[in-house]
Each structure stands twice: as C-alpha cells, then as structure tokens.
Description:
CATH superfamily of the domain at 88-186: Head domain of nucleotide exchange factor GrpE
CATH architecture of the domain at 88-186: Roll
Number of strands: 6
Shape: elongated
Largest sheet: 3 strands, antiparallel
Strand content: 15-25%
Low-confidence stretches: none
Mean pLDDT: 82
Radius of gyration: 37 Å
Number of helices: 4
Amino acid sequence: xxxxxxxxxxxxxxxxxxxxxxxxxxxxxxxxxxxxxxxxxxxxxxxxxxxxxxxxxxxxxxxxxxxxxxxxxxxxxxxxxxxxxxxxxxxxxxxxxxxxxxxxxxxxxxxxxxxxxxxxxxxxxxxxxxxxxxxxxxxxxxxxxxxxxxxxxxxxxxxxxxxxxxxxxxxxxxxxxxxxxxxxxxx
Length: 187
C-alpha cells in the first residue's frame, strides 16, 4: 500500500510528458492587441481543476492514512493491555484466600503443609503480575491507594491523619490497582 501511495505522489511530482507544448506565436503585433485563444483558456481551466482535484484527493488520502495508522496504534495498545490484565478476574477472586492465609500466618495457625501451600499460591499470583503494595501503620493516608473503612481517635498526635491499622493489603496488576488497601485512619 505504501508503494502505491509513493507512486501517486511521484506521479504528481513528475510533469506529464504527454502535454502538448504551447504553440509559439510569432507576431508583429504588440502584446496588448493580441487576443487570447478560447481553446487554450479552457485547457488551462481544466488543468487547474484537475490539479485542485488531485490536491484534494491527496489531502483526503493523507487524512485517511493517518487515521488508519492511529487506529492500528490504539488497537495494538489495547491488545497489550488486555493480555497483561487477562487473568484479572481470577486473581481478584483469589485475593480473599491469600488474605485468609496471611491472617492465619500472623496468628501462628498455619502448619508446615499449609505454609507451603501459602507460599506456592503467593508465588503463583506474583508470577502472573499481581503485586501487593506495602501499607503500614504510620504511613500517610493516600486516597489514590488506600480506602478508609473507619476513622478513630488517634492514639498519639503523630498518627493524626495517618494510617493507624491495615485490615487488608492493596494489590496492583501491572500498573492498575486491583484492590485498594483497606485502612483505619486516625483523626
């Protein structure tokens, strides 16, 4: 297609060789008294009209071509996004299971076998691109990453407007936040 476009543009740049040369008029009359030939006027008008049509066609073609290139670029970007987040629903469904394992591990309720299962599951979701972003007590509250589920009086003045407790960690898949960290904020 690009070769065809190049041929069209090259044709415009080259002057057609089939045009008849303008006749050379030898006359002794002054230029003011010479009358123009009506046939040559219509030919020049036709040539100008054809040139204008050609220019308009080129502009339309360039617009269509650029629109098509934008479409291809956007489609490729959407495809990459879709592939990178293809398992989002399944990974989101696994998050409560991971939370239960984390709670059991904090309370020391995991046996050796369940600890192995927890690690394998954590490694599996990490390999699929799901990453936990760390949120700790004492961090500043960020509405773009955290979801405040409660607001309690701050135990110290330093924790006012900051995170007092984290109930669930937040996760990202690629660059998108899959789940916001659920936190308790001090007031």
